[in-house]
Amino acid sequence: MKLSWKIFFTTLVMTILTFSIGGYFLISVVFQSAFDRERNAALQENKTIRSYFTAVIPLESSDEQEQSRMLPMLESIVSHFASPVLSIRISDQNNQVMVQQGDFDFGQIVWQQLAEDTLAYETWRDASRHYIQAASWMETTSGRIYVETIRDVTSVFMDRQHVFSFYRKLVLVMLVINGIVMFLITAWALSPLKKLAKTTREIAEGKYGERVLMRTKDEVGLLATDFNQMADRLETKIRELEAITASQRDFIGSFAHELKTPLTSIIGYADMLRSKKLSEENKILAADYIFSEGKRLETLSHKLLDLLVVKNHHFDMKLVQIKELLFRVKQTTAWILKQSGVVLHIAADDAQLNVESDLLQTLLINLVDNARKAIDSDRVDREVKLTGKRVDSEHYLITVEDHGKGIPEKEISRITEVFYTVDKSRFRGSGVGIGLALCKEIVELHGGEMKISSRPGAGTRVEVKLKGGAGDEGSR
Prior knowledge:
- The chain is of the alpha+beta class and 476 residues long.
- 56% of the residues lie in helices and 18% in strands.
- A hairpin with a 2-residue loop joins strand 3 (120-126) and strand 4.
- The longest helix has 57 residues, at 219-275.
């Protein structure tokens, strides 16, 4: 059962119970009050009649004349007090009726319940009528006389019955009105939850941008706000996962493509060496190509391994003289720079940095090598600048700058992606787009920042800002 129907039926049941129990007690209290008034009136009437009898009838006289006059006096008094709602009966101590108004059947012998100086009453029902019968006694010359009165209180009981009948109709009307009102209130109160449920289903169906539009400040509004915040974070995570999935898909595709060409060549040349007779010169050429392509695959595997190691391992940081590290980079790249006719200039401030020296050296070697590849062979100023500068007491800036081909502005944000290259043909046989991705991971590992600025035809500048830096200034 839906929550709205649960609230609806629960409210109706509570309304029925509340009106029924409350109405029953209210009507009962009103009825009891009316009945008490009628009972008191009946008792007071009986006491009044008895008092009147006591005043006008001789009580202790033995005079026969007086006694003979008592019966007519009783009849006169009874006829005087009798009414349509009040009947009177006078009986002697032997239960013989002396005087009775009308032929009404009293039925009850209430006077037998009387004690000395007491007044008794009973309530009873005859067919569809209700009565209060009261009785009292008095002493006369001929003995004890009992005065009984019966008061018709049917109207009180009829009023109660009419009130109950009206109240049942009122409750029925109130239930209908209450049901309509509660249905509207429930629909209004739960409409935000319906919106929330609808939005949840839409998000589950893949519409991650859907949100709950709600401006209320109640608990449901707060729930909607929390839900939207959760949806924002969920969408962000999903987009990140989608981006990672796309990146991994591109990675696998690019990796497969990078392996396909050298492997095809290696297999082809190996098959030629295996199945054909070649001259020594062709054998050397074939073997040389197999060797160079194998070395390229080896380099690729090493760089992929480095990338995975940086992402998945923690390293111990140690204080390193940054100037010495830069000159080790120069020594490492000296041969390949000489082969390309590129000159590396170094200038650095003395400082000690808390770094992983091998990884930082790998970072700088990659940046220098990328700068070397970007310089056209026909340029006169074939040089790369590697500088280090203490920015402040907390940061040290390393810069690698060239005057090569440069990078289009729209490509700068993607060049740190694995296997991404600005010009595919440019790196064929010499690079596969892993170097800058590895550089980015190393910089992030050190808690630093890497900034790339470039203009096509003017060159590229890569700035790496690292935390730390202390020592004497100097340059070489």
